[in-house]
């Protein structure tokens, strides 16, 4: 069926324009205001049988409401010769002369705008709509009829990386980035438009994605990438083993700075992140960490929010908890054994002690205080760094304790509004007035990459587990790629853990 | 006139919110894609000119049975909560 409507609808539009449709839509289909919602609640009943369901339609000619299931709208159409009706659930147009629903491009645009209006008036994020190709994209698809279909056991996107000395620290980070779903989508969709393609690191990453998904299976050599990173992050230059975590952060930073330089591209998903940058790196990796410092004398709170790209988690026993011998310490001390332990500890209020008095903004005196870190805004990709390497003046050592981490992670308990326990905690299941925020906010993540450091501090080797498709895990050990089980992933030591948000929001309210 | 639970939810905008939540959940769990595929198949078999009513008749029961229990449960819980919250509000005013 075309989207040019039908002759009957076209005649109607020629005579009365789009206004009748718009009015019905804004009052009875989407309800773009509170007033409209009240009218809808009271009057949207079948005029014949008083039902509010059964596929209620409104006559487009005279705003008669009739249900379809019991034939009341049909009856009206026949007796009054009003042959066009609007479905009140979805806003589609039914033409009784054609005997079916008809699509009309012009009215679809009206409907779309109304949906956005409603979302705004209810302060929900943008309503989800599936992607529809524009006319230009339809042309492109027609011109390029070859499609690649990803089947279940496909090895698409898997390629080994040659080790150029001791560059496994780079290889494993590249593997993790290549298999970051949103980053992959960004680059495979050709979103990076570059004025200076020769020396641009982002372009290099972009072509790297093309290489990984080209179908060629030979291991890649990352000469150019390494060279570009060396020139942009000099402290990483040289062939000796580097810390994968440091490399990860440096890479994000270099990419961010490159994007920033040339960014005129429209924002993709998140408009405002705590880093105030719209580059793809910040859209995906940046979250906001809230720090609340509470004065012990006056209870005054000073709050700051800082951007973060990853969360570094301590693995040693809690300082000052007295160790395991003190038994049931109030602080719940001892060393953490799971990622959840680590996060719980990370977001726990911590007493800063008498030697660290801070000037309180409220009472203007130097006082003891407590400090608590919580997640104000979650990133799309949550990266956790387990601090396995301890560097001190006496010795450097590696902590190899087993820290369990889940495949599915819910970050809700570590959010600022939850952890601080001051606001809204009484609302049942979080659906507050007009379904604000918490109603839809879903903070579940799933694991998609794990980087491991095998061996000792001196002779270590980095490898990565990556999720290529749902439930399909692979181990990347430089040029070797082997299939892995989820169990292998979850029982590995874990140095860097990458989680991807399961549910993405489509546009956000600008109020923070 | 007594307002029905349905009307209460429409008035407060909760119905639109819940409807959108349901829509999102169905997209997220792959239900939408599944049903789309079923529809495509039916259209292939019956030809382009199949009417909406005919398609609906063939797809409804299959589509309904594919809605995951967790989604139903979540929605039911949320509807209950909303109605209770509205009731609280009425008591207060
Ligand atoms: Zn009726
Ligand atoms: Zn009429
Ligand atoms: Zn027609
Ligand atoms: Zn570039
Ligand atoms: Zn940036
Ligand atoms: Zn104070």
Automatic annotation (TrEMBL), chain A:
Organism from which the protein derives: Ceratosolen solmsi marchali
Pfam families noted in UniProt: UCH, zf-UBP
Residue span, UBP-type domain: 24-122
Keywords: Hydrolase, Metal-binding, Nucleus, Protease, Thiol protease, Transcription, Transcription regulation, Ubl conjugation pathway, Zinc, Zinc-finger
UniProt EC number: 3.4.19.12
Any one Gene Ontology BP term: protein deubiquitination
Subcellular location per the Swiss-Prot or TrEMBL entry: Nucleus
Domain USP, residue spans: 159-502
GO molecular function, one term: cysteine-type deubiquitinase activity
InterPro entries linked: Papain-like_cys_pep_sf, Peptidase_C19_UCH, Ub_carboxyl-term_hydrolase, USP, USP_CS, Znf_RING/FYVE/PHD, Znf_UBP
Catalytic activity of the protein: Thiol-dependent hydrolysis of ester, thioester, amide, peptide and isopeptide bonds formed by the C-terminal Gly of ubiquitin (a 76-residue protein attached to proteins as an intracellular targeting signal)
Similarity comment text for this entry: Belongs to the peptidase C19 family. UBP8 subfamily.
Designated name of the protein: Ubiquitin carboxyl-terminal hydrolase
Superkingdom of origin: Eukaryota
Principal localisation: nucleus
GO annotation, cellular component aspect: nucleus; SAGA-type complex
Automatic annotation (TrEMBL), chain B:
Superkingdom of origin: Eukaryota
Keyword Transcription found: yes
Keyword Ion transport: no
One MF annotation (Gene Ontology) recorded for this entry: transcription coactivator activity
Record-linked InterPro entries: TF_ENY2, TF_EnY2_sf
Subcellular locations according to the entry: Nucleus, Nucleoplasm
Sorted UniProt keywords: Activator, Chromatin regulator, mRNA transport, Nucleus, Protein transport, Transcription, Transcription regulation, Translocation, Transport
The protein's assembly and partners: Component of the nuclear pore complex (NPC)-associated TREX-2 complex (transcription and export complex 2). Component of the SAGA transcription coactivator-HAT complex. Within the SAGA complex, participates to a subcomplex of SAGA called the DUB module (deubiquitination module).
Biological function: Involved in mRNA export coupled transcription activation by association with both the TREX-2 and the SAGA complexes. The transcription regulatory histone acetylation (HAT) complex SAGA is a multiprotein complex that activates transcription by remodeling chromatin and mediating histone acetylation and deubiquitination. Within the SAGA complex, participates to a subcomplex that specifically deubiquitinates histones. The SAGA complex is recruited to specific gene promoters by activators, where it is required for transcription.
UniProt name for this protein: Enhancer of yellow 2 transcription factor
């Amino acid at each position: 069926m075309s989207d040019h409507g039908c002759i009957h609808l076209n005649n109607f539009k020629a005579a009365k324009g789009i206004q009748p449709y718009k009015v019905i839509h804004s009052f009875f289909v989407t309800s773009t205001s509170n007033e409209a919602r009240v009218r809808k609640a009271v009057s949207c009943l079948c005029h014949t049988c008083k039902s509010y369901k059964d596929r209620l339609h409104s006559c487009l000619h005279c705003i008669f409401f009739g249900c379809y299931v019991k034939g009341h709208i049909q009856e009206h159409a026949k007796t009054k010769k009003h042959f066009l009706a609007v479905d009140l659930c979805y806003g589609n147009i039914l033409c009784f002369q054609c005997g079916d629903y008809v699509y009309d491009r012009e009215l679809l645009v009206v409907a779309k705008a109304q949906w956005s209006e409603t979302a705004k008036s209810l302060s929900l994020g943008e309503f989800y709509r599936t992607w529809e190709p524009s006319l230009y994209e339809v042309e492109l698809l027609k011109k390029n009829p070859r499609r690649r279909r990803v089947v279940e056991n496909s090895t698409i996107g898997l390629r080994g990386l040659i080790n150029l000395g001791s560059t496994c620290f780079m290889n494993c980070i590249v593997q993790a980035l290549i298999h970051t779903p949103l980053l992959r989508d960004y680059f495979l969709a050709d979103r990076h438009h570059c004025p200076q393609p020769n020396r641009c690191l982002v372009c290099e990453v972009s072509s790297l994605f093309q290489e990984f998904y080209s179908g060629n299976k030979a291991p890649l050599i990352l000469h150019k990438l390494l060279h570009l990173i060396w020139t942009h992050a000099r402290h990483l230059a040289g062939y000796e083993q580097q810390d994968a975590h440091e490399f990860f952060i440096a890479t994000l930073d270099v990419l961010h700075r490159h994007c920033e330089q040339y960014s005129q591209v429209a924002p993709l998903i998140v408009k405002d992140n705590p880093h105030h940058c719209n580059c793809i790196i910040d859209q995906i990796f940046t979250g906001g960490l809230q720090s609340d410092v509470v004065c012990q004398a006056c209870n005054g709170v000073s709050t700051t929010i800082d951007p973060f790209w990853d969360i570094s988690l301590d693995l040693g026993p809690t300082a000052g908890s007295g160790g395991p011998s003190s038994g049931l310490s109030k602080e719940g001390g001892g060393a953490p054994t799971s990622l959840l332990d680590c996060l719980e500890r990370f977001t726990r209020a911590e007493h800063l002690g008498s030697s660290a008095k801070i000037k309180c903004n409220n009472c203007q005196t130097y006082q003891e205080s407590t400090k608590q870190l919580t997640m104000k805004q979650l990133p799309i990709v949550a990266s956790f760094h387990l601090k396995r390497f301890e560097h001190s003046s006496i010795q450097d050592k590696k902590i190899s304790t087993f820290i369990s981490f889940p495949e599915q992670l819910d970050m809700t308990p570590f959010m600022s509004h939850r952890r601080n326990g001051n606001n809204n905690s009484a609302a049942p299941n979080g659906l507050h007035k007009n379904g604000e925020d918490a109603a839809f906010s879903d903070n579940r993540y799933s694991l998609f990459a794990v980087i491991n450091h095998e061996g000792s501090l001196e002779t270590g080797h980095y490898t990565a587990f990556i999720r290529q498709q749902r439930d399909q895990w692979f181990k990347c050990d430089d040029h070797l790629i082997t299939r892995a089980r989820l169990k292998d992933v979850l029982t590995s030591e874990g140095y860097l853990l990458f989680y991807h948000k399961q549910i993405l929001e489509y546009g956000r309210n600008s109020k923070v | 006139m007594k307002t029905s639970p349905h009307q209460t939810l429409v008035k407060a905008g909760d119905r639109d919110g819940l409807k959108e939540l349901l829509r999102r959940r169905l997209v997220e769990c792959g239900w939408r894609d599944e049903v789309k595929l079923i529809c495509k198949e039916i259209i292939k078999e019956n030809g382009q000119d199949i009417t909406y009513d005919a398609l609906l008749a063939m797809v409804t029961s299959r589509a309904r049975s594919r809605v995951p229990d967790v989604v139903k449960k979540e929605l039911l819980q949320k509807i209950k909560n909303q109605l209770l919250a509205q009731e609280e509000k009425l008591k207060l005013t």
